[in-house]
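Reopening closed ticket. The problem is back. First fold of the pair:
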Amino acid sequence: MHHERQEKKFWTPSEDLKLTELVATYGARRWNRLAEKMQGRTGKRMCFHFCYSLFVFFRKLKSYSSYYVLEGKGCRIRWLNKLDPRINKTAFTDEEDAKILSAQRELGNQWTKIAKLLHRRTDIAVRNQWRHLNTKKVEEANKRRNH
């Protein structure tokens, strides 16, 4: 069965607002039900959006057929990582940076466990901050080597 690849669609502010309203009405559960109420985020398109994000993140998904299994997860992931008002979206502090680096050395890439050590940070935000910190280290090392 051949599945046509759809154009990647980014979340719009109006979709974020709609999802926030749906979560306020129905709660942060039953994601497939919420997805059905999101125009343009149901069925194939929403599954593609979610799985394409996973593909980029994990670089392991090789089959587009799995895109049809995951309907509500795109809404769930968007809520948990971007829209939930309990999330701390401020810049990371030096203390948090030190905790991230230390915990990653100890636990490896177990981002969920590391995020639990920080106040209201998501695993994705923690992983991205760790990557940012490591990129800075590499750039600084290269600068010292070249000068």
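Second fold of the pair, where the issue appears:
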Amino acid sequence: MPYPNVTVTTNNSSGENSENLYRPFSVFSVLTLTLLAMLVVATFVWNLLVLVTILRVRTFHRVPHNLVASMAISDVMVAGLVMPLSLVHELNGRRWKLGRVLCQVWISFDVLCCTASIWNVTAIALDRYWSITRHLEYTLKTRKRISNVMIVLTWLLSSVISLSPLFGWGETYSEEALECQVSQEPSYTVFSTFGAFYLPLCVVLFVYWKIYKAAKFRIGSRKTNTITPMAEVKDAARQPQMVFTVRHATVSFQTDGETWREQKEKRAALMVGILIGVFVLCWIPFFLAELIIPLCSCDIPPVWKSIFLWLGYSNSFFNPLIYTAFNKNYNNAFRNLFSRQR
């Protein structure tokens, strides 16, 4: 059935037009593409601001800020190299008109940057877990060495997953159908989805469960490990009011002594929880579709492919927002950076 009130004519058939996600000059297409363009710019600017801050502030030239810098680099690359071409892809109705070479470059950077972003989130979660549960063993020197190893492994694994199709593991471009997409070879689908998402998902969920257990154990042990003085036991029957006062003073003293560390650990656990939660919500629809569709030889409407893809891209926008919101040092550094510019 033809669309009403459409005055623009093209050489394509009506069946092809109905399959396009965005019809030319429609209000929906203009609004949607404007919002996506704003998301691209905001993602690039915010992550670039984090990188500039880390480079300019000397106190940030150490762990865990090297992990944050690695995450910001991957997210800047998503916004600068991947999302603009994806926007062009959407403008053309999800048809690729830029040739095979640029298709392969785009898909390779897409997989590389998104996989690196996901594994950087995992590395930050692991770093927070070890700093909370093993703060005596996890010294600054050990933390620096482990964080550097995690950064190298993150980019190495991401490179292996992204470059595999270039060496014959499936095809990314179809000239007849003008399609450019991640290789649909079933074996590569299983390898890439598990390496890029399901494995780090298991890691971050396990990490947060351990952080929750450690925090719960620490709070429980603090409540039960109160020492009552001997004099207090002897005089308990005769001076109940004094006993209450002594106990109250003892508990208050212990709580005050642990307040700073407990608050720091609580904020770190909350930050990791929100970071993981947003990561899961943004990427799980896309990776479920990426795993199921090639294996069952089925398909979903193009509009849902676009929604799932851009929802995953939006994770690169939320990552710096979440991390800096729970770090007062970044807030102060941003304030100083803007005040100097004035």
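Update: turned out to be a display glitch only; the data is intact. Residues 24-341 form a domain with the Rhopdopsin 7-helix transmembrane proteins fold (CATH 1.20.1070.10). Confidence is low (pLDDT under 50) at residues 1-23, 230-257. Please close again.
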